[in-house]
């Protein structure tokens, strides 16, 4: 009976694998919801550009970039932890795995905060509360963006601007233009035979004198 209890005992490795699966399932759920928010942020960035508000457009794209990085970071961490939990010498990496799972839960909580569509609306509002939120967000994001991130954001902003410019241009017709009607000009017919000239009276007199 004691052997059965030992066989059914949940090990630290079993618990780590279970926690890992829970984190992975949560991430998949969050990804779908955050992707909806990302699309809305791009839409709001377009709207801000259309209104000539580059600052708000940049803020929306910065927030989008930050959320994408959170998702990518969590996904990469889960892959690393999965490799560690599958290792034969789990006891050697147990502490590292537990710390990783703890950090993963913290990141998931942070991602959960980023799934609010209301916050996207606050990016565009001009109320006092919204402006305070925008300033706070801008300060937070500025400290987390690298120079490379800033370049990526500027490229995306320029891409959106080009799309807006192209959308504003009139469409070029894709059907052939109608041919201009030719003027119906009739020309007189050219005679096929040239009429012989009638001899003048002077010519006839000269002919009679010659005979």
UniProtKB/TrEMBL annotation:
Main location: membrane
Gene3D superfamilies xrefs: ESAT-6-like
Lineage: Eukaryota, Fungi, Fungi incertae sedis, Mucoromycota, Mucoromycotina
GO cellular component: ESCRT III complex; multivesicular body
Organism name: Phycomyces blakesleeanus (strain ATCC 8743b / DSM 1359 / FGSC 10004 / NBRC 33097 / NRRL 1555)
Protein's UniProt keywords contain Cytoplasm: no
Residue ranges, annotated region (Disordered): 168-211
Gene Ontology biological process terms from the UniProt entry: late endosome to vacuole transport via multivesicular body sorting pathway; protein transport; vesicle budding from membrane
Cellular compartments annotated: Endosome membrane
Family: Belongs to the SNF7 family.
Pfam families: Snf7 (PF03357)
InterPro entries given in the database record: Snf7_fam (IPR005024)
Protein name: Uncharacterized protein
Keyword vocabulary terms for this entry: Endosome, Membrane, Protein transport, Transport
